[in-house]
Write a structure and sequence with these properties.
By secondary structure, the protein is of the alpha/beta class. The chain contains 20 helices and 14 strands. The protein has helices at residues 2-20, 24-53, 63-112, 115-120, 123-165, 167-176, 178-214, 216-221, 225-251, 253-278, 283-324, 385-392, 415-419, 436-440, 449-458, 462-467, 485-499, 515-529, 564-570, 573-580, and strands spanning 55-57, 60-61, 346-353, 362-369, 374-378, 400-405, 408-409, 422-425, 434-435, 475-476, 503-507, 533-537, 549-554, 557-562.
């Protein structure tokens, strides 16, 4: 376990140092101020010792000498305070810049990760890594930068001053004190795993809370409150247990090191007092040495605490770097074609695809769609309808086979140019936090006011927008707002109607809209689809009767293909699906 912990430390430390390297000048400044702080702090006990020696006895006190020393001490304290403040500014700057850069890289990496990563990881855990875990890293680095520098400087500084006063007593201090480091190192190495488990449990809790609060209506509708509380209690108990264990074992560091420090201070006091009695040591020297002994052992105590805090920071950093080190989606080829115009022909040849190798899904799929053709894809749940859309948009790459757009294989096109050829309206609505105006113009930021309003009217959402307090400047978001699910979907439809791409994908695009509005929107779709290649996924088969071609899928294969009338005459799988929707129970 110890070897594993050490390896984990190194894996987290190296990338952290890479992020700290651009701020090396701040690091150097911080070290300079740390040296100044320590030097003046260590010079003060010498002045105090000299002042003690000036107090010889009753009526034999050199007040002038003491006054001069007090002035010097005042100046030293002022310089030390300023240097310490400047050092803190530098260390804070380094820490927050490092955390900022890591968070930026982690968020940017999320934009480049394949959709499979997002689909296979709890969203709450990803959020926890980028926010909560990086806060832990920030706290650990702040303590590390601020106390580690001064601690190391203090150790070497006090060592030099003590050697200049008495070599024999200094050796006693040097021999006993490192015991505290060995104790701290042993505890820290064995608590790393506990801090890592704590970070994982914290991520599980964030994921659960995000899931339950985001779906509170469903939780209450199915009376799932007690079960959700039970789940929360289990995760909370797990977090409590690992948190208590990590805190308990890490908190052993301080009392253990303080015990060693107490031994050092006691040894110096006894041996120093004997030296004073023998006349080889003044009282001022003993006072000065005791202060140095205390200052020498104190950094060991602080460093042990820093090591414990850094263990927690490294454990959290490791979880963030796991995202940054994830394999990105296959980049566009260097000679990838930038699509500027397409004729709408889509060819799918011998495509095989499965999300996991063990579970086969799309096998030997072939489809040829002509320009301007409306193609409906229907079939039972899990047959691969949405998967085909994912492959068309290249959210996932086919395991084998080829998909071509206007005769160009989509693997040989840039993703952005290829995806810009499509307009998507999905069953799951998504709106960003911002004004209604910004949401409608999401795909066409340079749209004019007239174009935006025209698209809103075509999507039949202009009326309810004008009734809102601030009209098109009303701020909404996906997670919470005063507009209904159907109104959100109308805004998503308006977004596509504004950009008017040459090809359309409609995946249950009107599932949240009332019947009357759906009829109006369907008419708008009819107009928008004229001359555009369109893919329509629908469970309500009555909405796709006018499609040029209906693809009937089952278990990843095309089982039937043709127009509505042709498929009904076959009296096959499609006819069975269609009639089942109108069957009288």
């Amino acid at each position: 376990m110890k070897n594993k912990s050490a390896k984990l430390d190194t894996s987290a430390l190296k990338p952290l140092m890479k992020y700290a390297r651009p701020h090396i000048w701040l690091f150097v400044l911080s070290m300079v101020f740390a040296v100044i702080t320590v030097a003046f702090t260590l010079y003060a006990p010498i002045l105090v010792g000299d002042a003690v020696d000036l107090i010889i006895g009753m009526g034999l006190v050199d007040f002038d000498g003491i006054r001069t020393i007090l002035i010097k001490i005042g100046v030293i304290v002022a310089i030390t305070g300023i240097a310490q403040w400047l050092m803190s500014l530098c260390t804070n700057k380094i820490t927050y810049c490092v955390v900022r850069d890591i968070r930026n890289d982690a968020f940017e990496k999320l934009q480049r990760l394949p959709l499979s990563y997002i689909d296979s990881h709890p969203h709450g855990d990803i959020i926890s890594r980028i926010i909560t875990d990086l806060e832990q890293v920030s706290d650990g680095l702040l303590m590390g930068f601020s106390q580690l520098f001064t601690g190391v400087c203090t150790i070497f500084g006090t060592l030099g001053f003590m050697l200049s006063i008495n070599v024999k007593i200094t050796l006693i201090v040097v021999i006993i004190t490192p015991l505290s480091l060995f104790v701290a190192r042993f505890i820290a190495k064995n608590t790393f795993k506990l801090f890592h488990l704590q970070s994982v449990a914290r991520g599980e809790m964030t994921s659960l809370v995000e899931e339950m609060t985001g779906n509170q209506k469903i939780v209450q509708a199915f009376c799932y409150q007690e079960e959700s509380e039970k789940q929360f209690d289990e995760v909370n108990q797990k977090l409590r247990q690992v948190g208590v264990n990590a805190t308990f074992f890490s908190s052993l560091t301080n009392p253990c090191t303080r015990f060693v420090n107490g031994l050092v201070y006691t040894s110096v006091g006894i041996i120093g007092a004997l030296s004073v009695i023998k006349g080889g040591f003044t009282v001022g020297n003993l006072s000065c040495f005791l202060t140095y002994a205390n200052q020498y052992t104190k950094p060991f105590n602080e460093i042990s605490g820093v090591i414990t805090e850094l263990q927690s920071a490294f454990a959290s950093a490791k979880r963030v770097f796991e995202i940054i080190d994830e394999q990105e989606e296959t980049p566009d080829a260097s000679n990838a074609k930038v699509l500027t115009d397409v004729d709408g022909n889509v060819d799918i040849d011998n495509v095989f695809f499965s999300y996991t190798p063990e579970v086969k899904l799309i096998e030997n799929f072939n489809l040829h769609v002509k320009s301007g053709q409306r193609t409906a894809i229907v079939g039972p749940t899990g047959c691969g309808k949405t998967t085909m859309i994912n492959l068309l948009m290249r959210f996932y790459d086919a395991d084998s086979g080829e998909i071509s757009l206007s005769g160009v294989p989509i693997r040989k096109c840039t993703r952005n140019s290829m995806r810009s050829m499509y307009g998507m309206v999905l069953q799951e609505t998504w709106l960003k936090t911002g004004t209604i105006r910004e949401n409608i113009c999401y795909g066409k930021p340079d749209a004019t006011e007239e174009e935006m309003i025209s698209a809103a009217k075509a999507a039949h959402c202009h009326g309810f927008i004008k009734r809102l307090p601030n009209g098109y400047d009303t701020v909404i978001s996906d997670g919470y707002s005063t507009i209904s699910a159907g109104q959100k979907q109308l805004l998503c439809i308006a977004r596509v109607m504004l950009s008017l791409p040459p090809m359309l994908i409609l995946d249950e695009a009107t599932s949240s809209i009332d019947t009357r509005t759906e009829i109006l929107v369907q008419k708008a779709f009819e107009k928008m689809m004229q001359g555009r290649t369109s893919f329509i996924i629908a469970h309500r088969l009555s909405t796709i009767k006018n499609a040029d071609t209906i693809i009937v899928m089952n278990a990843g294969h095309i089982v039937e293909q043709g127009s509505h009338e042709e498929l009904m005459k076959k009296n096959g799988f499609y006819a069975e699906l269609y009639n089942s929707q109108f069957a009288v129970s």
